[in-house]
Design a protein that fits this description.
With about 230 residues, the protein is of the alpha+beta class. It has a single domain, classed as 2-Layer Sandwich (Phosphorylase Kinase, domain 1). The chain contains 8 helices and 5 strands; from the N terminus they run αβββααββααααα. A 5-stranded antiparallel β-sheet has the order 1-2-3-5-4. The N terminus and C terminus are likely disordered.
């Protein structure tokens, strides 16, 4: 019997398969032939996702650096009715599509350039490899640097949620257009979750939470855009 901690079966996608699928997806979007070359894996051998940096070169000579990300879940099935519940790839695809429609201009985020449902693959803008993570600031000795990093994260998350408030109807439309076989559930109230989190914070840090404010936050945060996988 497989234990609950055992990773689900995964499939293999080699560099050539990733490049070919990404090229085909970008060619469909661009309406012209695009080659994906110089693919360099970034996933460290992950059994969950294949992630790579590559160059997408169109037949007109233009080129751009892209990030290719594909699910390695063996049972990936974009036609399954429950795909939005079981597939992190599908949820991220829908979330990125929604963000592209909601947020315009430069926002410091990676835009979705192309996707392939059958392969379970996304092609995104490459924001570069020099960005820092939270690991350094939070594990270092400088409390001010750690606080600045956390405030930056909070600001980014706040902007994301503000831009997607009240998006459940739009999200449902995107899902039905993109994954017509998928069942799109109505969002449920997030108030109980917020109440539990608030209770945990009060227990650990003290203070109080206003019940009306919690309810208002829960209403504004009811939006089915879980974007990670």
């Amino acid at each position: 019997m497989m234990s609950s901690s055992t990773a689900p079966p995964s499939r293999e996608l080699d560099d050539a398969q990733l490049a070919d699928a990404a090229a085909a997806a970008m060619s469909r979007v661009r309406g012209r032939t695009v080659r994906v070359i110089g693919l360099h894996r970034l996933d460290g051998g992950s059994a969950r996702n294949a992630v790579a940096r590559a160059t997408a070169r169109a037949d007109d000579g233009t080129a751009r650096s892209v990030i290719v990300k594909a699910t390695l879940t063996a049972d990936h099935d974009p036609t399954a009715p429950d795909v939005l519940k079981t597939s992190g790839f599908a949820r991220e695809w829908m979330a990125l599509t929604l963000l592209d429609r909601r947020i315009t201009g430069s926002s410091g985020r990676a835009r979705l350039l192309a996707a392939d449902a059958e392969t379970g693959l996304l092609v995104l803008d490459d924001l570069g490899g020099k960005g820092s993570t939270l690991v350094g600031p939070l594990t270092g000795r400088d409390a001010s640097t750690a606080a600045t990093a956390l405030l930056g994260l909070a600001d980014a998350l706040g902007t994301l949620h503000a831009k997607t408030t009240g998006c459940s109807g739009e999200y449902a439309r995107i899902a039905r257009e993109t994954l017509p076989h998928a069942t799109v559930d109505r969002p449920s109230s997030s108030l109980p979750t917020f109440q539990r989190l608030a209770g945990t914070l009060v227990d650990r840090l003290g203070g109080t939470f206003d019940a009306a404010e919690l309810a208002a936050v829960a209403v504004s945060g009811t939006t089915p855009v879980p974007g990670r996988y």
